Every structure is written in structure tokens, then in C-alpha cells.
Amino acid sequence: MTSKLVEIDGVRLEYAWYGPTPGEATTLILLHEGLGCVAMWRDFPEKLSAATGCGVLVYSRQGYGASDACDLPRPVSFMHHEGQSVLPGLIKALGVQEHVLVGHSDGGSIVLINAGSAATEGLKGVVTLAAHVFVEDISVSSIAAIKTVFETTGMPDKLARYHGDNTVCAFWGWNGVWLDPEFRDWNIEEFLSEIEVPVLALQGVNDEYGTPDQIDSIKRNIGISARTIMLDDCGHSPQKDQPDATLRAIAGFVNRVSPAVSSTKSLPDNRFPS
């Protein structure tokens, strides 16, 4: 899939679209994790479109992939800016109508902020994959360990395959914020109780960046409109570690919040929750 550029508030953002356009079906908007971008979703967007019948929009945030570079250091409030300003601007610029937000890790935090404080008309639901709602010791220690890996191995070259000239922005913009002492008190639980659409939250049992306290907080603060699933044999990336289970869970959720467009016929069996 060839990516394109769209300008939001003077910043060019890379994006790619899979499947139906906004006038034809609900759009699933994918927000990547702290080191992600359009290309790093690999074949997941295409499979998700096939599994749901929805269009799938993926984009690279500023400082990632082929989007414009960012200034460093990033402010510790960068996820609030993404959820409350950039994401609504992107939705408007690309003519998105009915949509479901799907966010991984930092992207999951961003979609929760958006849904709880700046939801755009047409939002039907939210899916999070290993989202953070507060900072934990396990998150900080794992991110500190990745800093050492980046500084002492060939990790920069590997990231450069996806981020090119944005490799420095992508890594230090993420790592620097999470290791900033001011970020230790970051917490977005206040937004959860304000979310008025259904939420599906997935997390791996073996998540190396967060404990089940994250997903428990999502359930506790949102209430009966939130469904949570802990995936066995899964780390921080459900879409990579348990792709079939993740696809089936999202497809089932989309079928509930936007039943006219979803179909799970292409998925292999019915062992996984829907």
C-alpha cells in the first residue's frame, strides 16, 4: 500500500487507507505505539479490513515514518495534544464519518484521551491494545532497558528501515518522555469516566510494559460499557503475538457497535472471544 501525506495544522502526516472509503463503511483508525508508524503495522490493517468489512486508516504521528520531523524533547503532554488536537484534525481533513479508534500502547492512551475529552462526531467505539492509563515501575524499567539497547546495538539501523531520517525523533521523542521524572505522575484515568461509547481493551498476560492494573483501571473507571480481555501467550503487542485472537475480538466488537459492516467469515475458527 502506497502512503500519502495530509497536512494538519502545518504538519505533514503520512497515512494509508485500506478497504472501503468513509461513505461506504465505518472506518477503523489505527494509532501506533511509541516506536511505530504506518509501515510497522505490516499486514494487520489489510487483515483487519477483510475481517470487519470496514475501511482502515493508519497514519504516522509527527516524528515517525514519513511524517514531518518533530522538535525534541517532546513535551510530557504530547499524548494529550495528539488526542485532543491532531486526531480530530485528521478525522476532519480526511472526511472520516462513522469510526472506531484502535490504539496500540501510546496509541491506545491517545484514543482514550480523545474519546474522553475531544470525541469527534461519528465515534462508535474504542479498542485499546496494551494501553497505558498511568505510569508503572515495569514501564519505566523496560523503557530504560530499551535505551541501553538503542545505544549499544544495531537497533538504530533497524528502526531506520521504517523511520528513515525520523529515527532520532521516533526513539528519543518516545524514550525521553517516558524517562522524564516529570512524566512519572502522568495519569489519564480522569478521561475514562467521560467516555460515552463502548470500549474493548486487550492486553497480554506477559506484557513487559504494563501490569493487569492498566486494563483493570479501564474497566473500573469506564464501567459496564467496557469489555476487557487478557490474552495468554501474549506480550505488549497483541496484534503480533496473538493476531487471530486480536482480529476476532475486534471484529466481534465492531459487529456490535456498527453491525451493518462487520463479517468474521475470513477468520479461522471460533475459539476466540467476540
Q: Which architecture would the CATH scheme give at its second level? A: 3-Layer(aba) Sandwich
Mean pLDDT: 94
The CATH topology is Rossmann fold
Radius of gyration: 17 Å
Largest sheet: 8 strands, mixed
SSE layout:
Blueprint: E1 4-8, E2 11-18, E3 27-31, H1 44-52, E4 55-59, H2 78-93, E5 99-104, H3 106-117, E6 123-129, H4 137-152, H5 155-163, H6 167-178, H7 189-192, E7 199-204, H8 213-222, E8 226-231, H9 238-241, H10 243-257
Helix pairs in contact: 1-10, 2-3
Q: What would the keywords be for this entry?
A:
274 residues; 10 helices; alpha/beta; Rossmann fold; disordered C terminus
Give an overview of the whole structure:
The chain is built from ten helices and eight strands. By secondary structure, the chain is of the alpha/beta class. The protein has one domain: 3-Layer(aba) Sandwich (Rossmann fold), CATH 3.40.50.1820. The protein has an eight-stranded mixed beta sheet, with helices on both faces. It is globular. The two termini are 28 Å apart.
Give a summary of the structure in a few sentences.
The protein is built from ten helices and eight strands. It has one domain: Alpha/Beta hydrolase fold, catalytic domain (Rossmann fold, 3-Layer(aba) Sandwich). It has helices spanning 44-52, 78-93, 106-117, 137-152, 155-163, 167-178, 189-192, 213-222, 238-241, 243-257; strands spanning 4-8, 11-18, 27-31, 55-59, 99-104, 123-129, 199-204, 226-231.
